[in-house]
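Entry for the shared binder. Reason: the reviewer on the internal report wants the predicted structure included alongside the sequence.
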Amino acid sequence: MFRRPPDPDASHQVRSPGGYEWWYFDAEDAASQVRIVAIFLDGFVFHPGYLRRYFRYLRRPRRHAPPIASEYPCAYLCVYERGRILAQFMSQHSAGAFEASADSPRVRVGPNSMEREADGTYRLWLRGRPWRVTWRGPRRLDGQSLEADLRFRPALTHPPQDRTFLSAEMTGAEHRWILAAPMCGVEGRIRLVGVAERTIDVRGRGYHDHNFGTAPLGPGLRRWMWGRVLTDSQATTFHFAEPSDRSLPAEPHLVQVDALGMREVGVDRVEADFSLRSGSGLAYPRRVVIGDALALERPRLIDSAPFYMRLIYDASSHGGAEALCEIAYPHRLLWPVLGRMIEMSIFQD
């Protein structure tokens, strides 16, 4: 139900019902205290409408057509400044507005595109109408746009590595994690156009990975935490998945990348108390320890939605470098009222 392209960072053309593929990029500019997260999605795996159709199909496959990734292409951009959201958009486009190459990293979602150039640089262009939360729910800011022109230049020449990140035993499907360019130099420009016009030049560090799977992430998953730490000489990235079935073990993965290569580090323990709560009631840890390789503390919540959070931790194990982390509770997407509210923030283009 998917292809194995010659380049693991190219499109796998997932065709299984409920499948997905995304290309993720983030950047941090310490001088301006700006952070950027950009994602190109073939099948938004956290789209409540996509999930509703998928589970209707499972219940009655003869009465409902199987939903596939190409029906839900989306582009996402969020810009943070000094620990707060400056502007963001999540745009859903028609199936005809999505293109992805099976030969090399090249993706287009409406006016948003990503491609890897001949010298290995990833070039990103994104444009969409931002939104903000109001007492009536998410509201688009008419007459305004959020734009980005960014270059991610890999600092290392290691080829992309493809690995499992959630087991079929836990989720009932295949889920793959491609470490494409976990250490990059980033430069470019962010523009806010409209009522509050502004241009922000960006220069700093960045990270890029890529995921795909043959069914949604949520089934079998109680909670999922992901994060990465970048220093001048090393990238450390991890996933930590907790199953709904308490008889199954949790699944931690930690990978270190430096001039010597990419290597998975064995994890014998994960300590995370999840004693703190976001405004929407989601639990997150005050401190995280993953084996002997990573220790995170002093969390700062920079983004909070009804089913996920984005946080900054201090990585005391890495000289105090900052770790960008996310925590997701995918089962919340199937709560009827909450799912509809989340869907309101995904705007059709």
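Summary line for the report: The radius of gyration is 19 Å.
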